[in-house]
Write a structure and sequence with these properties.
- By secondary structure, this protein is an alpha/beta fold.
- Helix content is 32%, strand content 23%.
- α2 crosses α3, α14 runs parallel beside α15 and α17 packs parallel to α19 (656-677).
- The two termini are 45 Å apart.
- The site of nicotinamide-adenine-dinucleotide (NAD) has 33 residues, from α14 and α17.
Length: 913
């Protein structure tokens, strides 16, 4: 099967309010008011078609192995170089391999779809295995012009191949005409447009239907076989009419993103296509057409694989990350359409030495530094001597790409005297996780956005323009990772739930009622679930609490349905989710809120009371979340809230059942956060304090006054919203006070010599170190939490400067040496089989069985290994000799462990090399 294996998108963060163009220029061109609605995207001053192509491609390559990509097609009409392979710059920035075939596709708005057709043909013919297609455009227009309103900047990338296909390619059809609706004669900056009516009547509405009908005939299909029709056309009425002419009802036609972005030139068919893929479900059939001196029409069928694609920003994510402005002068300056006095400092020579650019190409364009093969210290730039003062090894630097390594701000400054298109110039020290730092420029931010410790990501940007010689220099800058909340909050944007469906359990009273009312007020359609039982869960239940809340929502103009099932059984949970699907067709938000109390001290806690509380709180959350999660995964979107309590997080006398259930929910969240992440499902937990039926006799009366449930709802609504960036966090909320609770782990200590079991007395002596939380960390998952343990025993942590033993060692040699390395005295009671699948020229498969104190090594694959270890041959040798740290290898993706992860730690104990 051939087709799309991954996608990515990039819309620059800046959006211009179209009305600001009219406000500035309406005196001159009053007619532009007709199209002055919504906003258009535009590049920051240091962005262009190349930088956007790199950004979209990095998004597309998230989670992908880049090594065997053997084609790169860059498609655009606004490439910065007429004679220098622009795709070559993108290739260098992405650190793709030198043996790939890179080409520029240009000179037509159809470049994006044509590049895609060529990539698909190349893979189908067997000439290429995996081709990255990236389409990008940043078109300039004269001011006070309709097209200034219609255009936007953006890029999209697609990876084409034959394994892991998310959208199967079923065929294409192309027509070519020298139809000149517009042109840009070289070396002009702006398009020359012909009369609109002619372009619409003879261009769009003849040529697109011709290509689409040709494809239908070729594949013997019709519009009935299409679920999504994707084609750009900024004439609104024409967009509708073309679809109608071809028999596509409005609901099949993909929105052309005019209101939120504008038309992104050669990139637009792919930008819209990526947007369609983001919403697609397995089985959906997508028709894509790209217009420009003819038309390409392509047909795809979405596969189940789309559900396995890791989460990425895509077009949806970059549309959400935005900064809206009405500063039209800034827009013009950023596009170099007005001249400002830049001062004498701006006259400093900017000539690029091509010799240096060639010699240091991986460093300048790919942000590749070095990592010492002796001690593992990364550094930028790469130099002959290791920066680690305890190592200082010479010529041990191996290439190390910093571009995707997480980093944070160590220091920063805003410099009003430095030359900058967007003063003040902001720069400072960026510290990379795992080591390495350097001075970087910051971009896509204001000075007030920055603080020490702020997370940043590296972004490929224009560094300078040498106007005299027509050369653009590129380098990497740091972009603060502002949470969408921060960006949205600045623009005062409302948190809305239009078109979304929310289920709130236990919503007939207390906190749940307030959540349901507030969600409905902000556009959500709500399923109000409540059993209507007594505070301790007893009684047959009553429909009235849920019905009353539904009435309240309807009276306020909202939409809601009632559901009376109990969360305490699997059938009840399923029925609650089914109610959402039946009434509204989907589920986007689930708030697990239902709750009861049966307080007793442990000694008096009968199994019945223990079980009743477990069934509603912990099992109840499982019963409802499971079917909801399945539906959310299909939609690749979801927000889930669990409700814990201070009683669980910190303990409360007389609430053993409740505390245990509430803390169990944290464990449930910790794993759902990992399983949902790639499907864009986020889960968070709220620990509320509010005056409700549950607390009326627990909290002092004067406090109850101040504890309106309404104070908890804002945080819950934010966590339920699309802009919520957090996943797997716990928040306390009450009385307008909000804070975060977390599980942290101290740094700990290694006691005794490596491999020796310490005595209880040694534990007592070291208790201060063991229990210290100084420097405590929060771990994203269980594997990361093992890191310090693995590191403590990792040979890679041995004194820097120790001689490596890797010389002459082979993978096969290591397995021959395993019986000698086996520590029989440590194998008592151990019964495991480790399967090693080592890839690469000297790799192979071996399995090692340890049982009854003996060790056996065999070549081949074991039928049911306890743990499987997968690595490349070189890395495996380095791991064994201590040149590669186990934890770094694991988190960096060089070491993959399947099966029983815990048992993999026995390897350190059982073998001594
Ligand atoms: P509440 O009693 O006012 O609301 C709980 C609702 O859940 C009730 O309307 C009840 O009928 C419903 N319910 C009970 N069992 C159900 C079942 N099996 N199926 C469906 N619905 C059921 O109490 P509240 O204070 O609003 O509690 C909401 C949540 O917040 C609970 O999970 C509670 O443990 C938690 N919580 C509350 C506080 C607080 O200060 N109020 C503190 C910590 C945690």
């Amino acid at each position: 099967m051939i087709g799309i294996t991954s996608y990515g998108g990039y819309i620059p963060r800046l959006r211009l309010d179209r009305m600001s163009i009219y406000q500035a220029m309406g005196w001159f061109a009053p007619a532009i008011v007709m199209v002055a609605q919504g906003e258009r995207s535009f590049c920051n001053w240091d962005e262009d078609a190349l930088t956007m192509a790199v950004a979209a491609s990095r998004d597309c390559l998230s989670g992908q192995d880049k090594r065997d990509i053997d084609g790169l097609f860059l498609c655009s009409t606004t490439l910065p170089f007429s004679d220098r392979l622009n795709a070559g710059v993108v290739k260098a920035a992405l650190n793709l391999n030198d043996r790939l075939h890179a080409s520029d596709f240009t000179s037509t708005l159809r470049a994006g779809t044509s590049g895609l057709v060529e990539a698909l043909s190349a893979v189908r013919s067997g000439d290429r295995r995996r081709v990255l297609v990236t389409a990008t455009d940043r078109r300039l227009t004269k001011t006070a012009y309709f097209y200034e309103m219609w255009f936007g900047d953006g890029a999209a990338s697609l990876l084409v191949g034959e394994t892991g296909v998310i959208a199967e390619y079923l065929g294409s059809y192309t027509v070519t005409y020298d139809f000149v609706d517009h042109y840009r004669g070289s070396p002009r900056l702006y398009d020359y447009m012909w009369e609109e009516r002619w372009v619409r009547d003879l261009g769009y509405s003849r040529i697109i239907p011709e290509a689409v009908s040709g494809l239908f005939d070729k594949l013997s299909i019709s519009m009935d076989d299409v679920d999504r029709f994707v084609f750009p056309c900024f004439f609104k009425a024409e967009h509708r009419n073309i679809a109608k002419k071809l028999g596509a009802p409005p609901e099949k036609v993909m929105d052309n993103l005019h209101d939120v972005c504008g038309e992104t030139g050669a990139a637009h068919p792919l930008v819209m296509f990526v947007h369609a893929l983001e919403e697609a479900r397995p089985g959906d059939r997508i028709l894509l057409a790209g217009f420009g001196q003819g038309c390409d029409a392509l047909y795809f069928r979405v596969t189940d694989e789309i559900l396995n694609l890791p989460a990425r920003a895509g077009i949806k994510g970059s549309l959400a990350r935005k900064k809206r402005t009405d500063n039209y002068a800034k827009f013009l300056k950023f596009r170099d359409l007005i001249q400002t006095e830049m001062g004498i400092r701006a006259e400093a020579p900017t000539q690029t030495a091509m010799t240096v650019l060639w010699r240091k190409r991986d460093m300048i364009l790919g942000l590749v530094g070095g990592k010492c093969s002796r001690c593992g210290t990364p550094q930028f730039p790469r130099m002959d001597i290791c920066v680690n003062p305890e190592c200082r090894a010479v010529h041990t630097q191996e290439p190390y790409a910093f571009s995707s390594v997480p980093a944070h701000v160590k220091s920063f400054t805003g410099d009003l005297l430095a030359v900058s298109v967007d003063p003040p110039g902001i720069y400072g020290m960026v510290q990379f996780e795992g080591g390495g730092r350097f001075m970087a420029d910051f971009t896509d931010c204001e000075l007030s956005d920055l603080r020490v410790g702020q997370q940043v990501t590296m972004s490929f940007r224009r560094r300078y323009t040498d106007r005299e010689r027509g050369f653009t220099g590129y380098f990497w800058k740091a972009v603060p990772l502002l949470e969408p909340k921060e960006e949205g909050a600045k623009q005062g944007e409302a948190v809305r739930f239009d078109d979304q469906v929310a289920v709130v359990t236990g919503a007939g009273a207390g906190l749940g009622r307030v959540y349901a009312l507030e969600l409905a007020k902000r556009g959500a359609r709500v399923v109000v679930n409540d059993l209507g039982g007594a505070r301790d869960g007893s009684g047959g239940g009553s429909a009235s609490p849920a019905d009353m809340v539904v009435e309240e929502i309807k009276a306020a103009g909202g939409e809601a349905v009632a559901n009376y099932d109990s969360v305490a059984t699997p059938e009840g949970g399923q029925a609650i989710v089914d109610a959402a699907i039946q009434a509204f067709g989907r589920i986007d938000i689930l708030i697990n809120n239902a709750g009861i109390l049966r307080d007793k001290t442990l000694a008096k806690m009968e199994p019945e009371n223990w079980k009743a509380v477990m069934d509603v709180h912990l099992n109840g959350a499982y019963h409802v979340t499971r079917p909801a999660f399945v539906k959310m995964r299909e939609n690749r979107y979801g927000r889930i809230i669990l409700t814990t309590s201070a009683a669980g997080l910190y303990g409360n006398f007389g609430q053993t059942n409740y505390s245990a259930a509430k803390m169990g929910l944290i464990g449930l969240m910790n794993t759902i956060k990992l399983e949902g992440d790639k499907h864009n499902i986020k889960i968070n937990t709220i620990a509320p304090v509010a005056a409700t039926r549950l607390t009326e006799d627990i909290l002092p009366p004067d406090l109850l006054e101040k504890l309106k449930p309404e104070f908890v709802a804002p945080l819950v609504l934010y966590l339920c919203s699309e802009r919520c960036p957090v996943n797997g966090a716990i928040y306390n909320a009450g009385m307008g006070y909000y804070n975060r609770a977390a599980i942290v782990t101290g740094p700990g200590t290694l006691i005794g010599k490596e491999g020796e079991i310490p005595s209880p007395e040694a534990i007592a002596t070291n208790m201060a170190k063991i229990k210290s939380l100084k420097g405590a960390e929060e771990y994203p998952n269980a594997t990361a939490a093992f890191g310090p343990m693995l590191d403590a025993f990792s040979p890679g942590k041995k004194a820097a400067g120790a001689e490596t033993e890797s010389k002459g060692l082979t993978v096969a040699g290591i397995f021959e040496g395993i019986p000698a390395a086996f520590q029989a005295d440590r194998a008592a009671g151990v019964d495991v089989t480790f399967q090693f699948d080592i890839s690469g020229g000297s790799g192979g498969s071996w399995y090692v069985t340890v049982k009854d104190g003996a060790c056996e090594v065999a070549e081949g694959s074991h039928g049911s290994p306890t743990t499987t270890i997968k690595m490349g041959d070189d890395d495996f040798v380095k791991l064994i000799t201590g040149e590669l740290n186990a934890m770094n290898a694991f988190t960096g993706g060089k070491l993959r462990i399947e099966g029983d992860l815990m048992k993999s730690q026995l390897i350190e104990k059982l073998f001594k090399f």
